[in-house]
Amino acid sequence: MNAVSMNNLWSYLQGLSLTASNRKWLAEKLIEPLEEKTATPPVLQTWEEALSDLDESEKEFERGDVISGDEFNVQCQALIDSFATR
Known about the structure:
It is a single chain. With 86 residues, the chain is mainly alpha-helical. The protein has five helices and no strands. The radius of gyration is 15 Å and the shape is globular. The two termini are 22 Å apart.
């Protein structure tokens, strides 16, 4: 992915209202080893599982379990910085 595409992706991510569980999932996906990615095919959700996840996300949002764009940026920068120190 080139720098322009990466910047566009970053801008897109900054615009999302992510719940705590969404942020955790994203962070885990970003740091998971490549061998896991190639060794295991993706698992598809059933319609019921997708609706259940959506319901849970809506409950988290109603509880206020979301962060601002600025907070998201700080957390993402910390994650990026953690890669630089490895």
